[in-house]
Amino acid sequence: MKYVRTANRNDVQMVERFLGQANISAVGLEDSIEDFLVVENEEGKIEGTLGIERHGKYALLRSLVISPSFKQHHILQLFEQAQIYAKKREVEKLFLFTNKANFASFFELLGFVPQKIEEVPSEIQQSPYVKETFSLSESKVLACEL
């Protein structure tokens, strides 16, 4: 059984290591750790992460990393939990960036709609994670109204 919980300050190093194993940037992690969802197994080992980097009424979904044992329905549950969490934090719109076309199609099935980069709020565009991790001209941007 998998357990989804909100990360806390004590999880920073463990989440950094997990992201590092997947070569995913941890920039800004410490500042937004309490808005990260962590999926653990029965032994407390991390098997998935999904970060929510809040910027006022907008948020950036980031750092989706899952272990090989993760099943498709677990990914759907993780996204559902992220949307519920964001709504509780009064986020009105979620954004995500991907440079993988097959992932964009998956996110569209979850209700995310392609956006032009010009339509993305500047606070999301200026996120250190976005600046470090993505080339905005090559990435697809998707958004979901909550």
From TrEMBL:
It comes from the Bacteria. GO terms for molecular function: acyltransferase activity, transferring groups other than amino-acyl groups. InterPro entries: Acyl_CoA_acyltransferase, GNAT_dom. Residues 2-143 form the N-acetyltransferase domain. This is N-acetyltransferase domain-containing protein.
